[in-house]
Amino acid sequence: MKIFVPAMGRVNTSNRDGSEVRFAEIAKVWLSLGIRLLLLLPKREIGVLESQGVHAEYQVHWEPFTSEEDSLFNVLKTYLWRIVTCPFVSYPKDVDAVYAPSDFLFDLLPAILCKLRNAKAKFVVCVFLIAPNPFVGYENMYTRKFKMPSVRALIYWVVQWISLWLIRIFKGEMLVLNTLDKDALVARGVEASIVHVVTMGVDGELFKAVPEGEGATSYDGMYLGRLHPQKGLFDLVKIWKRVNELRPGVRLGVIGGGSEWWFGALKEEIGKAGLEGQVDLLGFKQGAEKIRLLKSAKCFVMPSHYESFGQVAVEAMACGLPVVAYDLPIFQEIFPSGMRKVPLEDIEAFSGEVVALLDDPAKRASDAEACLAVAAGFDWKAIAVGELQLIEKSGGPK
Fold it and tell me: Which of 31, 64, 135, 319 is deepest in the core (most CB within 10 A)?
């Protein structure tokens, strides 16, 4: 089977979002099964995929920009270049499927152009995050508080509507990560029959193979994720300040990359809270190094305000880390057990759960056992094989 994948990726390669991690893991399994992957991507993305173990057939989409600055101007000019120049790409013939790992136009338009050249090819698009209404944003998605929308949020929201329309016009099928997102798409007029719920996973063998805490600094709590408001960055500081008031001297490790602006803003908030010695910004980590850091901690804190799945929670659970998170609607579906949930924005309740875990080794051990059992249900190989079968059966709406 031959599959064409436009894998343009992010401008900032010093970070990974869930969809990028997911595609890399799926691709590794597909390649091991003898699937031929033809990837269209900018040169910068080759290193990103190879660092995650993906070695496929690459067709480089040249771009004149090398800056990875996360400013709106730099992101827009890079994405617009990819969109405007994609009609001039030489697309392969005789592919069996076209698989877009995101619904962003710089992935979707090349996928559509390749599909037009391969009329019989299956056409599948991953829609792994529903853009929130920009007038509430990620932060207020469930509280429904009004906020002034940012330019980025408005663009994302409008462009996703265009993407969904294009997918339907060209008879693509959509993959989502939960039934709530499927319901949201159906409410927008998408046929339920072309929306399929899939899942994220974890490489259980790799996580088991990495020795616990070997060479890693020990932390009381650990955070893993993009440095972005969606992830509850500033709540994280408030939570850890309160934890330190209740249990002085506890330390938090923060694993994650993002824009320099958000990194600076988080560092400033940490300073204002007087937590310079209690919070370490560890930067972007992956592979064994990330796993060792996770295994060095006693619990995992996840104050996200909006998620479509919660990949980092699965990875923490695979390390036997008890997880404390806000009680988002999606977590009721994905993690009915193995996660301690508190009301959204309830800093006191969140901090209390963290302190309770730190003070009670038996409770941590019990949670760890439950978390390992949950993580065992998310296996990349089984997920990738199932997705391959789904692609083979897909055919779009009749």
Answer: 319
Domain locations along the chain: 2-201+380-393, 204-375
Architecture field, domain 204-375: 3-Layer(aba) Sandwich (3.40)
Q: Could you tell me where the DSSP H helices lie in the chain?
A: 18-32, 43-50, 72-85, 105-117, 151-169, 179-187, 204-209, 233-246, 260-272, 287-295, 311-318, 329-334, 347-359, 361-375, 380-393
Q: What is the pLDDT of residues 252-299, one digit of tens each?
A: 999 998 888 889 999 999 999 999 999 999 999 999 999 999 999 999
Which pLDDT does position 398 carry in this prediction?
A: 41
Joined tokens for residue 212: 């616990």
Give pLDDT, residue 397.
Answer: 47
Instruction: Of 392, 5, 12, 29, give the one whose Cα is nearest residue 201.
Output: 29
Per-residue pLDDT, 228? 87
Task: For 2-201+380-393, give the CATH class.
Answer: alpha beta
